[in-house]
Predict the structure of BMC domain-containing protein.
Amino acid sequence: MAQQALGIIEVKGLVALVEASDAALKAADLQMVGWSKIGSGLVTGFFTGDVASLKAGIDAAADAASQVGQVSAVHVIPRPHDELEGLVEL
């Protein structure tokens, strides 16, 4: 995972995550590598790709998700440490 950046979006509701994921994948050259149910309706999507693509994709995802639900957080990690892969379910 250290070769690619990691993008994360956390939203309230599965519908918002599906909308966000669709927008991200259409907007930029990135891959969705997983998602996780947090609890209390929060779900998080994980994406990989180069930094520029992730920033564009995550921005598009946040815009799309905010139309159908609530965006809790977005973040792009440019060079995640290899051991981070064990922390998130990828």
